[in-house]
Amino acid sequence: xxxxxxIGEREEKCIIEDxxxxxxxxxxxxxxxxxxxxxxxLESAPGLGxxxxxxxxxxxxxxxKLYGPQGTFTFTSYLSGEHIICFQSNSTRFAVIAGSKLRxxxxxxxxxxxxxxxxxxxxxKVNEVNIRLEHLIEQIxxxxxxxxxxxxxxxxxxxxxxETNSNILWWAIVQTLILISVGIWQIKSLRDFFISxxxx
Length: 200
What we know:
InterPro entries: Emp24-like, GOLD_dom. The protein is 39% helix and 35% strand.
């Protein structure tokens, strides 16, 4: 996931990432500050830091740390589900004068383990093959975890659909019984009325 977004200097912005359990997440970000004189974003935002907070699906805080205007954060998910990643600058200026707009470039990699090419080149061929095999095995484990997570979600969705269909069926049966009961009651009432008026 690579994107950028704008926030106010004292504003908090959150994104939601659906992540399988036991998955490494690596995030890289860079902050740029709006400059009124050149009417464009500066290359960086010197002196400005970012609070990065990561919350699990149960509300547990997995990461809460202050970084610089550019940085890398990592965390491992313990549960499958929607993780909330929030960014807020450490600006201490008053809200009235802290009107500067910030642009945050964000790159999030879920479950990826990148090869260190320089380390591979320094090793002999046997070690290179070993490192590449370990990398492939790790990628296979990640794909397996992703598939298991998707299976869990599909099973949950199927159960919800079956419960909904069952509830609809019972509600239809109850409605039918109510209509039949009301119809029988109306017929009996009309019959009693005609008998009492000696029309039958």
